[in-house]
């Protein structure tokens, strides 16, 4: 396989999540709350779980309340494992 085709078809694609910015107090870092709906293992009821992700925002463009799309990346710091790809919707 050539290098060009290897770059386009990754064996393990990066995870993409969508969530709401909870905090933008840090320099070039956001805290994004991602909601996930999962079925309870025993009772079958749908439960909402929230996970806080630390996201790298190089240009400090996102604000609290914005809906953003993030992508998995290499570890950037102790907690940061995600990168901002786009702002889906601005906070009103």
Strand residue percentage: over 45%
In the sheet with the most strands, the strands line up as 1-2-3-5-4
Uncertain spans: none
Please report the total strand number as a whole number: 5
Mean pLDDT: 92
Radius of gyration, whole Å: 16 Å
Q: Please report the distance between the alpha carbons of the first and last residues.
A: 48 Å
- What helical percentage do the residues reach? under 10%
CATH architecture: Beta Barrel
CATH class: Mainly Beta
Order of helices and strands: HEEEEE
Structural write-up:
With 92 residues, the chain is mostly beta strands. It has a single domain, classed as OB fold (Dihydrolipoamide Acetyltransferase, E2P), CATH 2.40.50. Helix content is 7%, strand content 48%. It has one helix at residues 3-8; strands spanning 16-23, 29-39, 46-56, 67-72, 82-89. Strand 1 (16-23) and strand 2 (29-39) form a beta hairpin. The mean pLDDT is 92.
């Amino acid at each position: 396989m050539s290098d060009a085709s290897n770059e386009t078809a990754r064996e393990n694609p990066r995870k993409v999540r969508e969530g709401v910015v909870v905090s933008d107090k840090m320099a070039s870092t956001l805290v994004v709350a991602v909601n996930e709906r999962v079925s309870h293992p025993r009772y079958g009821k749908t439960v909402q779980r929230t996970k806080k992700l630390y996201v790298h925002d190089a240009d400090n463009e996102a604000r609290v309340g914005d809906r953003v799309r993030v992508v998995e990346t290499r570890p950037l710091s102790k907690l940061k494992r995600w990168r901002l790809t786009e702002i889906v919707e601005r906070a009103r």
